[in-house]
Every structure is written in C-alpha cells, then in structure tokens.
Amino acid sequence: MSKNKKIAYACIFFILLVIGLKIYKKYNVAPEIKFKSLELTDLDGQKINWEQIPKPIFINYFGTWCIDCRKEMPELIALGKILAAEHVSIILISDESTATLQNYVSKNNIPFKVYHAVSSFKELGIVKFPTSYLLDKKGRIVYSATDVQPWTDHRTVEQLKQGIK
Fold it and tell me: Which of 5, 7, 82, 110, CA to CA, is 20 to 30 A from 95?
C-alpha cells in the first residue's frame, strides 16, 4: 500500500472517529444545563422560582409520549422513597403543554412535582429521553444520565447518596 493511501485511510478513520464521538456525546451524555436560569411553570401556569425548589434535587426530563420514560417511572417512584431519608426532592420536567402534563399526572398517579419547561428540550440540548440529573444542596450537578437507569440498584443508590454528601 502506498504512503498516500495510508495517509488517506488515516484521515478517513480520524474523521469517522470524530463524527462518531460527536454522535455518542449528543445522544449518551446529558447536556450541561444552567438550572438557575431555567424557566419553569407549574401545571397551573404559574412561574416557578428555581431557588424555592428544595435541594438536593433529582430532576428527570421526560415526555408523556416516551415509552422508556413510562418504563422507568416505577423505578423513579421507588427511588423517591429511598431518597426521602436523604431529603432529596424529585421533580419531573417536560416541555409539553400543561394540559397534557395535568392529564398524564392524574391518569398515572405521579407522586412528584411536575413542571413545564418554557424552553423546548431542543433548545436545552436534550435529545435523549429520559435524561436525569442530581443536584447537591448548592445546586451543582453531581450526577447525570441518559436513558433508562436501574435507579433502585444498590450501586446506583449509593452513587447518588455519595453525590449529595
């Protein structure tokens, strides 16, 4: 094989590697979100002051249409019971209409606060559902994940607890 072909193959490999890493990051790494500047409303359309939400806080970005989000909900409910002893608030955030969210909450007996994100998920950089974050008492991201997680698995619970200490 000639030197020029080797260089061309190496360039192609490098380009594909960069593209692959960008795609992986976009769909498998939770984006950095500036939570303090995040605009939320409750299901009555009232603006929420981010500073009034008790911390530490577990945040789950979800969609009522999302099969994986529905699949994960029993685990989140169980996690909420586990983390209650740590005084962790769990909230769900969606960019869907408040009417859609009200309907979903009432039909599914969701025990968490559910908020409407004024900015679309696309604007926030969220492209994979569900996407979850744990913020410590100071509001810093100490854990993030995309996709369905084993929230009640002992290792996951311990990792979350360590994040808020």
Answer: 82
For residue 136, the enclosing domain spans 31-164
Two structure tokens written together for 13: 């490999």
Distance CA 61, CA 40 (A): 12
Q: What radius of gyration do the chain's Cα atoms show?
A: 19
CATH code of the domain in which 151 resides: 3.40.30.10
Mean pLDDT over 105-131 rounds to 91
Are 39 and 11 contained in the same domain? no
Segment 111-131 mean pLDDT: 90
- Do the beta carbons of residue 110 and residue 49 sit within 8 Å? no
Q: Which helix (H) or strand (E) holds 120?
A: none
Give the rounded distance of the alpha carbon of 160 from its chain centre: 14
Give the sign of the dihedral formed by CA 126, CA 140, CA 76, CA 156. positive
